[in-house]
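Dear support,

I submitted the protein below through the web form. The confirmation email said the job was done, but the results page showed an empty box. After a refresh the structure appeared. I'm attaching both so you can tell me whether what I see now is the final result or a partial one.
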Amino acid sequence: MLRKNIAALIVCILLFIAGFIINGNLSLYFNLSGLMIVFGGTLAATLLSFRMEQLRIAGKVISSSYRNPTKKESDIINILIDLSIKSRIEGILSLQDEENETSILFLRRALGCLVDGYHPDQIRDILNTEMYFFKLRREDIERVLRSIADFFPAFGIIGSVVGLITMLGGIGDTSVILQAVPIALTSTLYGLIFSNFIFLPFAANLKERTNHELLLQKIIMEGVISINSEINPVVLKTKLESFLTPSARQTELVSYEKIRDRFNIKFSEKENQN
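What the results page shows now:
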């Protein structure tokens, strides 16, 4: 899926650049003064708004979100069912081995609570707290990205104003006006491109990934609590598949005949005739 996204992204970028080339020389859209105003102003506003540590964490999260794909819901469900079967055969303490092998930090945290003998209510409370602050941290990073995305158009307008002031100051001097026009126009262009082409997509991707990871964490929490209650693996599978879309579930639907037999539903005369 990631390869398909990259291929589609390359095609879209080429189409985007082609739109500039068709109606003129690509070099016309490059202006160092406008670029410096937009980037310098945005960087200054960002540094005044956020701590360097916060920006560093945001960079790491963005990099990780594109480099490390998340597991599918069905994969998590299969892991939990395997753990449920193992706990019934070898005992709950046998999950200590799985705690050290899994790569999912939240699952390791949940298994740690399980093998330490925490009460189900305590496990639910701890994991809900973990999920709550995970969501807060991600929302904080998303806020940083959206704030930077807002800075870019604002400083693009500032660059345009600088260009217009230079044009007004050079009335009567054609050379000054010709130098100022590119600053006025390209500054707004740079602000809009970097805002809508980079940072807003970063924020949208982070939000989508956060929602997906919260769903996985919810599945893990319900699965681990069910394992602690020694629920039957078949029942656990049915319960956890409720989190999946109907097309992603492996369970076959119960036929109408079985429903009728289970609840002693008799056929009506009209149904018998059909």
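Response: this is the final, complete result; the empty box was a page-load delay. Residues 36-238 form one domain.
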